[in-house]
Write a structure and sequence with these properties.
Blueprint (H helix, E strand, L loop, with lengths): L1 H25 L6 H12 L3 E3 L4 E4 L8 E5 L3 E3 L2 E2 L8 E8 L5 E9 L1 E7 L2 E8 L12 E8 L2 E7 L1
Antiparallel strand pairs: 1-4, 2-3, 3-6, 4-5, 6-7, 8-9, 9-10, 10-11
Length: 159
């Protein structure tokens, strides 16, 4: 009985150790997120049009490599602009470029928009979103400041 318990604990520990590796290994690198997303919407819509702000290329994690951010508010699908947008904002997808080449998506956020500014020597996003994301009930948009560290967003502040 004791041996069985130790084997279960060892198996669970091994699973916890390997889970992050398996999760990151599941995502296939994209050669170009713009082509990937445009192809997706061309399959979804009879007529897909993309505004000039659909894809923005910038270094979002301060590593010197240009990454990408897509704005689904800049899509017109069968005559409807921003078909996936609602009162919470529009979907934005954030992609990091790997040093080896290719991109992987690190986050999707439904926001009104963002400013990308330098703060204390690092570039950060100031995302404007629905006030409920800042646990408020007023009408003023929530402003959440985040930095990309490694492959994830780290919230610095929100107001």
């Amino acid at each position: 009985m004791l041996v069985k318990k130790h084997l279960m604990i060892a198996a669970q520990a091994l699973a916890l150790f390997l889970a992050p590796v398996a999760a990151s290994a599941q995502q296939e690198l994209l050669s170009d997120p713009e082509i990937y997303e445009k192809d997706h919407f061309r399959k979804q819509c009879k007529i897909a049009q993309f505004g000039s702000g659909f894809m923005t290329r910038l270094d979002i994690n301060n590593d010197g490599i240009v990454d990408a951010v897509s704005n689904h508010g800049e899509i017109t699908c069968d005559g409807t602009r921003g078909p996936d947008c609602n009162e919470d904002g529009c979907p934005y997808n954030f992609y990091l470029r790997a040093r080896e080449g290719g991109y992987f998506m690190i986050a999707t956020a439904r926001i009104y928009g963002y400013d990308f500014i330098k703060r204390f020597g690092n570039m950060v996003f100031v995302m404007k979103m629905h006030p409920r994301f800042c646990e408020r009930t007023d009408d003023k948009p929530c402003e959440m400041t985040v930095r990309v560290r490694g492959g994830r967003f780290v919230t610095i502040s929100r107001k």
